[in-house]
Design brief:
- By secondary structure, the protein is mainly β.
- It has two domains: 1-92, no CATH class; 94-188, Immunoglobulin-like (Sandwich).
- Helices cover 5% and strands 44% of the residues.
- The strands form four sheets. Strands 6, 7, 8, 11 and 14 form a five-stranded mixed sheet that branches. Strands 10-9-12-13 form a four-stranded antiparallel sheet, with no helix packed on it.
- A hairpin with a 3-residue loop joins strand 6 (99-100) and strand 7.
- The longest helix is centred in the first third of the chain and has 10 residues, at 42-51.
Length: 196
């Protein structure tokens, strides 16, 4: 379960399939977020076989309103109405998302001296400006059209002003009323092999 999230998104990414999904909702209204698995014992492996086409592994991403977790609940009174908005959307090719909103998902990773920036939009956006900086220095700035079916993933060398200084990325949609989306990068380590 994700407690005290500072972001309005969460998601999952399968590195081998280079695909995943993102959930976006106001964290103050939709606090419930969790990753569920049956575990890695005989009981869990049995559910892997039952719930997947390829005998696992199995995981569920869950999100919700009205509660922080499934065992908790709240009642709706007669004639009471509650409304909320949440968005689920697929991602591909950009890597694990570091930040997302309804319009875009952003990944930013340092791989050695290479900087990898991934952006995927949920709709066509013309002249989306992507800026990556290290401290006060802009190390990459691109403006281009995006469509929801063609994510962008770019790698370029990055000279930071100090080795410990993280890079950050911002995307600015051109339309008035939309907020920018930003992400902070981090060094990535190789993934361990999955065990069954």
């Amino acid at each position: 379960m994700i407690l005290d999230s500072k972001y309005d998104f969460f998601g999952g990414y399968d590195h081998r399939r280079r695909a995943g999904l993102v959930h976006v909702a106001d964290r103050h209204i939709s606090p419930g977020k969790k990753l569920w698995t049956w575990g890695n014992s005989g009981f869990g492996y049995m559910w892997d076989r039952e719930l997947t086409d390829s005998e696992g592994p199995y995981v569920e991403l869950m999100a919700g309103v009205f509660t922080d977790n499934q065992p908790d609940f709240s009642w709706l009174q007669p004639y009471e109405t509650r409304t909320f908005k949440q968005y689920w959307y697929p991602i591909q090719e950009i890597g694990p998302v570091k930040n997302a909103n309804r319009l875009a998902a952003v990944n930013l990773e340092m791989q050695g001296r290479k900087l990898k920036v991934g952006v995927l939009t949920t709709e066509a956006l013309k002249q989306l400006r992507v800026i990556v900086s290290a401290g006060e220095k802009v190390v990459l700035e691109k403006t281009r059209d995006f469509s929801r079916v063609s994510p962008s993933s770019k790698a370029s060398s990055c000279r930071r002003t100090a080795p410990h200084q993280p890079c950050s990325s911002e995307c600015f949609p051109p339309r008035a009323g939309n907020h920018s989306i930003s992400a902070r990068g981090r060094r990535t380590a190789p993934l361990p092999e999955a065990r069954h």
